[in-house]
Amino acid sequence: MRLTGVDRGAGWSGLTVRTTLTNPSTGPGLRLPGRVTLAAGPDDVPIRDLLLGLVTQVEPADPGKPKQLVQFHEVPIGGRFVVPAGRRRAVDFAIPLPWETPVTIFGGVPLLSLRTGLRTVVRVDPEHEQGAMVPVFVHPLPTQQHILAALDTLGFVMRQAGFQQGRLPGVQQSLPMHQRLGYWVAPLYAGPITELEVIFVTNSAGLEVLLWCDRRQSLAGISHQSVSRFRVWHAGADQRDWVSVLDSWLRQAINRHAAAAAHADWSARITESAHVSRRPDEPVRPGYGLGGTAGGGGIGGGGGGGDGT
């Protein structure tokens, strides 16, 4: 699939900018190939700079401010040349994406409202800029893919996804922003926490995973948060049991979170693994199915016949 963004030209230059991606699907640390085609109008157009930038909407550090369109990566691909009148000039590129480039696609489906684009900026003499935009689809690295799939297997449900401005304390970052994936907690881990945020900080060797645990009591206005960090290498990622790995990380993070909130009545620890499974101790009696009440017809239960106790 090829995607093309076109700017039809503006002002005195009459320049048309067309950006075509050979394949708009890419991933962190990979190269994004394509071509920028510049077509001049009736006059020669002197090009001062030709730049490509990755842009996305980012939530500012101040939660009271609206989202902003931020360019988080820029690569020059040419400059100081002239596009003759009535002629075209093509510039091929294969720009490297930062390892921390936020993921926007998982399982072939966009992660909620996340979007990333490639912006072409042409600086024309004298001071004038114009450009074209084309969407880019950032797929997860295998290591990220395994973790996201394990979260899904364990029963976590994504509730929000976004990019936040600012750096994380104690974490080496190359970008001035980071991605946050928010989940409703899976039933096995509920109680000590109600929400989980997952943050990936990636480099060429591996992945740092931050698990941000939160326990909110909305009626009481109480919230307790804690952050645990885990590291894993890209090499050998396909040979690991990721459900077990993530379950171990989660139990460590949640137990640490519970210990920090030991004064609270909801600070129970997680003691059993996600792999623990057994048959019910007693058969479920009619009328006690999910969604029903004693004596009523819940899922898996018959209508009536309950003893009401």
From TrEMBL:
Residues 288-309 have a biased composition (Gly residues). Residues 273-309 are annotated as: Disordered. InterPro entries: Spore_0_M. This is Sporulation-control protein spo0M. It comes from Micromonospora mirobrigensis. The lineage of its organism: Bacteria, Bacillati, Actinomycetota, Actinomycetes, Micromonosporales.
